Structures are given as C-alpha cells and as structure tokens.
Amino acid sequence: MHIAFIGFGEAARAFTASLKEAGVESFTAYDIKQGTPAGTDVEKAAAEVGVALADGPVAAIDGADWIIAAVTAASSLEAAQSVEGGLTDEQVYVDINSVSAKRKQDTAALVRNKGARYVDMAVMAPVHPRGHKTPVLIAGDQQGDITGALTDYAFAWRSVGAEEGAATSIKMIRSLFVKGLEAITVQAIAAAREAGCYDEVYQSLSGSYDMLGWPEFGEYEFERIMRHGVRRAAEMRESANSMRELGFANGGALADAIASLHDEIGQLGCTVPEGGGLAEIADTVLNARKTGAK
Fold this sequence. Notes:
8 strands; eight-stranded mixed sheet; N-(1-d-carboxylethyl)-l-norvaline Dehydrogenase, domain 2; 2 domains; alpha/beta; Rossmann fold
C-alpha cells in the first residue's frame, strides 16, 4: 500500500503515524504551504515521520494506491483539481475533508471522470490519539478491495450508504450541535465575566447541567476554540452550506454565527494559561480581545 496525502496538516500526520504502526510503509505528500515561510512546520513534520514531500500534487500521487485528501474545508475541491491530471483508474481518492454533501458530490464527479474511485470519509472525533483508528463513516465507492483494506489496516469504519455525501452530511449536522455548544458555552462564560456575574451564572449552569462535568467541560470548550477556532470556523461555514442545501428557511445563519465566534477567538492566537481555571481562561480571551495581545 502506497498512500499519498494532499495536505499534510494535523489529520494527515496523525494518520501517517498510526498507519505506519498498522503496516503501511510507503507514503508521499504535498502541502500547498511547501516552500513558504509557513511551510517550515510541514517540512519538519514530514521529515520526523519519514514522509517524502513531492514537488507538486501530481508528483505526490504518482504510483499511489490511495490518495487521502486532508486540506482545509475551503480548499477541498481545489485539492482534487490539483491532482486531476495524474489520477488513474487504479487509484482510490479518499476525501476526509469536512465539507457539505454538494461539495463532496462535485469532487466525486471530478475524480470519477478520470477513472479513479471516490470514498466520502467523515472523521467523527479528534484524530489524536487514535490517528486513522478514530471512528469514521464512509460512503461512495465500497468495492471489496476498499473495504478489505479498511479492515486490514484497522480503520474504525462504518458504511452509511453508497451515495457520496451521506457520510459528510452526518458530520456537518452533528457539527452544528457540537461546535454550537462550544460557541454558546464560551460566549456565555466570557459574557458573565465581563458583566461581573460569573459566580451566579456558573452556579446556575453547573447546577442545571451538572451531567456535563463542570468546570472541566467549560475549560475544554474554551481550549478547542482557542486552539482550533480558525479551522473549525471553516468547517462550520460548510455546515452552513449544508443547511442551505437542505432548504432551511434561515439558510445557514446559525452555523455562520457559530463560525464567526470560532474564527474571532481562533484568530486571537491566545492559549490556555498554565494552571488556570475556567474564570482565568475566560479572562485570557477577554483580555486578548481588548488588547490584541496573544
């Protein structure tokens, strides 16, 4: 098995490490950041895990059995277009990007037009610490060699149908809840600190929703947005597209609002203070918003 990654960020790196443990020995990759100041991290990470970086996307997929597309949500179709000239009928294009069903259907059409097969894969939990063994849903092409490889290499996979877009739809709708809960928790706690009523609000929330496990729950919600807000905002914009595709009267307004808050806090670049509790974490975000300091 030779796997090529288009995009070598967090997901691709986590998959590489665990797939090596599962017996995959041959990897190549291409990331659009290569050759730029932002690409230093990509090049260092690839060297650490022994992945050869190709000069371009078509070169990266040359001879690959599977191509795993793991780019930002906004670039998912462009990633497929970048390798279009090198796709063959012997390859499988595994699209793990968090995008709307329509985006995956458009990508599938492009890939299949070149004879390659297409798998819509939705990664349903953080990729650390399990890497490719993180639970995934799949849709699209599922011939025996594809499902056999998923099983042989210990993917935690489950099929949700043959129509591409079926897997990503589940993730996009679920993300509306998960990332919406993060956004509303972070804004409510930050607003309580700003208004000087934190103790009252915290006692009410932790009492009414004790099953969530306060204060650790709130601290985790802040950490996710502070660390991954920009990337998660891009995913929520795709969730908004999903809502529009489904014909909801308000379109993707809710998901767009959730994306805006994730993006705002993620752009601050601040981190969870060492040893800080929920109140201190909220203050860190508030201070960064006011001063622009990271």
